[in-house]
Amino acid sequence: MKFNLDFERCKGCTLCVNACPKKIIEMQSERLNKSGYYTAECTDQNACTGCALCAVMCPDCAIAIS
């Protein structure tokens, strides 16, 4: 399973960071999206179990697990 983020849709709310049981989602601080937000990123795709808790918590449906 792979964490996929729609970069432009993410508003940096951090709900996915708190929902991840593996603690492998962090907020990046290097690039802003078009709306001016720093976005989430998965720091270790191999550790992702595909539980999709991050996607369920995302209010903007910016995360997909595939």
SSE layout and pairings?
Elements: E1 3-5, H1 15-19, E2 25-32, E3 38-42, H2 53-57, E4 63-65
Antiparallel strand pairs: 1-4, 2-3
Summarize the structure.
This protein has 66 residues and is an alpha+beta fold. 15% of the residues lie in helices and 29% in strands. It has a two-stranded antiparallel ribbon.
- N- to C-terminal distance: 5 Å
Tell me, what's the shape? globular
- Counted by DSSP, the helix tally is 2
**Secondary structural class:** alpha+beta
Q: How much is the radius of gyration in Å?
A: 11 Å
Count of beta strands? 4
Describe the largest sheet. 2 strands, antiparallel
Uncertain runs: none
The overall average pLDDT, rounded, is 97
Strand order of the largest sheet: 1-4
Q: How much helical structure, as a percent, in the residues?
A: 10-25%
H/E element string?
EHEEHE
Assess the beta-strand content as a share of residues: 25-35%
